[in-house]
Each structure stands twice: as structure tokens, then as C-alpha cells.
Amino acid sequence: MNKIMEIMDNMDYGPAPEDSSIARDWLAKHQDGFGHFIDGAFTKPANLFEVMNPATGKVIARVSQGAASDVDAAVKAARAAQGKWAALPGHDRARHLYALARHIQQHARLLAVLETLDNGKPIRESRDIDIPLVIRHFYHHAGWAEIMTDEFPGARPHGVCGQVIPWNFPLLMLAWKVAPALAAGNTVVLKPAEYTPLTALALAEIAREAGLPKGVLNIVTGDGDTGAAIVGHDGIDKVAFTGSTEVGRIIRRQIAGSGKALTLELGGKSPFIVFADADLDAAVEGVVDSIWFNQGQVCCAGSRILVAESVAARFTELLARRMETLIVGDPLEKSTDIGAIVHPVQLDRIRSLVEQGRAEGAQIHQGSAPAGCFYPPTFVTEVEPASILASAEIFGPVVTLTPFRTPEDAVALANNTRYGLAGSVWSENINLALDVAAKIRAGVIWINSANLFDAGAGFGGYRESGFGREGGREGMAAYLRHPAPRAKKPEAALPAPVATPAEQMAAGTIDRTAKLYVGGKQARPDSGYSYAVPGTKEAVGLAGLGNRKDIRNAVEAAHKAAGWGAQTGHNRAQVLYYLAENLSARAAEFTERLRSFGQGKSAAQTEVETAIRRIFWYAAQADKFDGAVHQTKSAHVTLAMHEPLGVMGIACPVAYPLLGFVSLVLPAIAMGNRVVAVPSQTHPLAATDLYQVIDTSDVPGGVINIVTGERDPLAKTLAEHDDVDALWYFGTDAGAAMVEAASAGNLKQTWCEDGAARDWAGAEGQGRSFLTRATQVKNIWVPYGE
């Protein structure tokens, strides 16, 4: 029988190897090793380490290990180039990015083959997915450079950006970070992953070929120590990191208090929800595209299949049948579905986790894989939600399968994770799909699809999947800043409140201690202590001395008020208008309270009137701070929805005890958050006097909670609390560093500023920037026009 007849008989794919000769010739040109790319030129190779092809185990290159001196040189070059690069008209930066995109297109095949040799992913993925997206990002951000001054008026680049990228999408992650940074006028010092540095070095050659100015892009290779040197360098103004949550925590602590901007795109354990009415065959293909894409080495992979109990058996059967057809093997073969695991260390980790799951009673179902650094496609049944396989990020071609009965069960299981990067929902009922998409706590949701990406839509996570976005308007905004206010005299550290009796109370003062306000009720502080609130000469009252337990109770009450975020913006606005109306009715009373602290009559009246106007302004914004609809992939639109962060902690400045409180609490609750606020430590009574105003304004209990006392210890408790989603701190530099470091536990978003820097009575005291910081963007990919 001839070969054609044999092929027709068994229907197997014939050999279709990718020609890798040009890529290997390029590697041969660098057989003496690669140096770093600094100031437009490659340094002399030194202190080399080996880079291997994971599919063969053979060494394919040697690359320099970056030292502190190399990082210093790269940062110096980036700093020297940054001023001129930022001063270029946006059109000129756009031309450079456009040229870079064109040159990448012209070298696309070389880059695709290099990526497959270096990373082990199938050539079809490198060629058809990764490199086209790289090109798309440079084109897209050339457009942002062109129109930046129109779309982001008053914005400025951060300066020098330090960027550390992972090994799973080496060139694509570079594009995600470098393109917006350069478009915004920043310069870059980037470290590619130790396992996969080759396409970054090839891109450096392409950038030089395309005429990118010297020093604008600098690449320093090396291991984690090199990355730490970049992140911690005093000359870096913004840090961007993609990688594990554990390393993200280390970086958060490392740069706490430095003033560096930070975005983190971290791990995930994404749910893949299949309802009974879903197209099961399409959903199975979605699994292939989700968890078996790139060997499962995808942070947003749908690694937890949640399938309706009524179709679970049928879905499992279809999934097993499809898994048997997957081809695992040589990544350069065009028929290969699953390539090599990036490194033996990662392969060992996958094997170890699967064996732990097996020991816990999970049933392991696997396809086949050749010997070497390969792992078979795997799905796992009989998995408890607390199992290691259902909770840990495996980062391999392993997916769990768990049945559910109701949509509520599906949502509960989907959110039963510390991560929040992505999710996928499969149903022919679009009402059900969109309802569930809104309830999943993740930054990206795909409906009847999986792993779709585009430069026009933001990508990033909630909770321990990090913060910040890459791509879209919000991704561009992450590389821009608005000049922050600076204090002529920074806020000084405050002495601890004195809980012993005051020498004397002001004459005529009613003997009443202002209690805490928790869950819509006044509450005595757990400590049982109070402290004197100073007036012009004598104390004007007593405030409760809150402690850790009071914060715990307030956070619990805030979580119970979750329905506030589910209300329409119009309904929230009505409540806030009512709040302003009731405060206006008692304006004289609040003016006198401020005067008792020593303010002049005019200043006190101005603070109260400004507070009332500010409540009105945020009431007006409650139903107007809209999202967007992005035109992304064909047959899809992407809804960019502004969602509340959840439970926010707010530590208020000392000055403007009423206006500072209102200016921070109102934007948070207008966007649907619930707050635990620590008012001015020295004069908290201006905030506690709001209890009755809040009570009579239909604000649901638990939406606003007030805990008085020593600001920094209470802020530290809020920062460490894993059920607090964000923290705004306006105080001292030391307090800001403490808050940022303590927030690393659950990687909550923070906004820290000198409490004396902002003019709360002026334009700096309100604005859309407050609303932006009070929300996070969820991108929902919806089929459209199919």
C-alpha cells in the first residue's frame, strides 16, 4: 500500500515540520553569547548562563547574567533618554512605534520560530496567536501616542519604567508592557524571564534596525536577583510585573513607601462554567482553547470546569473523547496541539501537585505524552473545592471538573478562590450568561468563548490576581500620571491619643462620648476607653478609642451591606442627594462644631458649604461614571464595566475634619463601595456628628462605618485585613510605607498621600480621579454579529 493510501486509511497527520534553519542561523551568529541591550547597543557577553530548548533538552544559547552594575547602566541610559523621548510630539513617538510594528511584521516568522524553540509552545500558537498580538499592540499604542494629549489632557509619563515579564508568553508580555510605556513617553528597563530571553533580545535587534532612539528601550537578562535589582532601583519611577502572586507580594513590600507606581498581573484559578443549555461541543473546544492552550501555562486558563449536574456525565464523555485526539509532541510540528513544558522544574511541580491530588482521592484522567519535558493533557474528577488541585495554580495542562446544581451554586464555586483574573461562561441563555458574568469576581469574563485577547480591551485581575490593567484605555492610563499635590509642610506624626481624663472640658459641653458607628448603629469601642478631643483651649468632647476588634466588626458590617453595590447608580444618587439635603438643614450646627475646634467662622462655614456641594457632585456622578464598549475581535464586543472595589478602608487626614471625611467617603460610596472610615484623629467629632444625618438619609446600615481613634494602628489593621479590598491613606510618609507593606497580604489596592498635600477646599478635593480609584474595570467579551 502506498503512503497516500496509508494516510487515507488511518487518517493520521503526516509530518509537517517548521523550517527552523533561519532561527538557528541567528542563534549561531551569537554562539559566543548574548550581552545586555543598553543604550542602543549590546554589551560584551559576561557571566553567561545556558538557555535550553525544553522540547529537546539541548542548549540553544548562552545569555549574560545581569549584575547591579548592568542595571545601573541601563537605568542611567533610560534616564538620559527619557526627557528627549517624552518631549517628542506624540506624532513622532507614534511614527517610531508604527515603524517598530512594521519591522516586527517583517520578522514575524523568525520571532515565531524563536519563541517555539525557547518556550516549547506549538508553532501554530506562536505563529498565529502570539506574534500577531504583539504586532497589534504596537500598532494600537502607536495610535495612543498620536492622540495622547487629546485623550489624556494634563497627563505626564512616569519617567523610567522597570518591567519584569514571565516565561509563558515571552514576547507578548513584552509588547503588553513596552508598547504603552513608550507611547506615553516613558523609557524602559526590562528583564525577560530567565528561561525565555531570546525573543526579547531579537526584538532589541529589531528596535535598533527600526531606528528607535538609544536608551529608550533597555533589556537586561538574568535571574530573579536581576529583576529585584531593577524593581528596587532608586532610578525607577514605575514598576510593572507579571508573574506569580508570591513574587508580587515580595515586590509590593520591596517598594512600599518609595513612591513608585505599581501594576501587578499575577496568578489565577479561573472558573469555566458550563450550564445545561450550553452547546456542549463548543464548550469542549473552549476547554481545549483554555487549559490545553500553551500547555496550560496561562495565568487566566480555565483551570476549574464547573458543569451543570444534569449534563456533567455527557460533558465528561465528550471531554475525554476530545482529549484522546490531542497531539502532544514536537512543538515545531504544525499538527502538534500541546508542546513542551517550559522547564524540568515546572514539569516536576505539575507532577507533584497532581500526585497530591491523587492522594486526596481525586480521579485522574490523562491522555498520552512522549518522554522528556512533556506532560499529558489531564482532567480530574471527584475533586473537593478545598483540594490542592482546585485551589492551587498548577500552571500546566491540568483541569478539574466539578458539578453544580443551580446558578447560585456555580457562582459560589466560581468565587471560592483567592484569585480573580478571568472566567468563562457557557450558555445559550444570554440573560443567564450576563447575570452570572456580573457576579463572578474577576477582571475578564468570556461568554461562550475563552482566552480572547486584544490590545483594545484591558486585561487584569481582582483580589490576589493583582491590580492595574494592560491594554485598552485603562492600560494606557497606567503609564501616565497627573502631577500630585505637594505639601509645603508634610503632615507630622501624631502622638497617640491620651485615654486618661482631660484636665477640663469646655464650658457648657454636654457630657456625651461620641460612639463608633458600625452597621448603622452607634457602638461603644471594644477597648472601653475614650480620649479627649481638643478645642481652642479645653477639650470639647470625648471620642471612642477604637481597636482591632472594632475594625473587624466594621468590616463584617460592611460586607453585609453588599446590596449597596448592586443598586443602580440612580438609586444611590437619590440617597446621596438626601444626605446633602439633611446636612444642609443642619449646616449651622456643623459650623459651630468646627468653630469649637478653633476654626474661624468664615472658614467653618466654607468647609460645611463645600462639603454639601461635594456630596451633590458625587451624587450627580453616581449614575454618570460610565464604562465603554470596545470593538475588539470580529464577532465580539467587549464591555468595559466600572465595578466597585468592595469594602474600602479610608484613613482621613488631620486637617478639614468634615470636608476631608466627605471628600474621601463620598466618591467611594457613590461608586457602590462600602467603607470603614477612620476620621481625623485629632477632631473626629465632625465626622461622628454625621451619624444622625446618615441615619435620616436612608443610607443602608453598613455602607458607612466610622471607627475613631489612633489613625495609623487602625490603618494597619485595615491594611492587613484580608476582607478589605482597598485602602486609602492620607497621613505621613511613614504611615504610607506601613500601609503599602501591610497590604501585600491580599494585594489590596492602595492610595497613599501626604495628608497635608491636597487642598481639600479647592479643585484638588474632588474629581474623576477619585472615581477611577474607587472602581475596577471588568471586561466582558460578548458574541456580537455572528
From TrEMBL:
Catalytic residues, chain numbering: 265
Domain Aldehyde dehydrogenase as annotated: residue spans: 48-481, 532-756
Record-linked InterPro entries: Ald_DH/histidinol_DH, Ald_DH_C, Ald_DH_CS_GLU, Ald_DH_N, Aldehyde_DH, Aldehyde_DH_dom
Domain of life: Bacteria
Key words of the record: Oxidoreductase
Oxidoreductase among keywords: yes
Any Pfam family: Aldedh
PROSITE patterns: ALDEHYDE_DEHYDR_GLU (PS00687)
Record family assignment: Belongs to the aldehyde dehydrogenase family.
Protein name as catalogued: Aldehyde dehydrogenase family protein
Source organism per UniProt: Paracoccus mangrovi
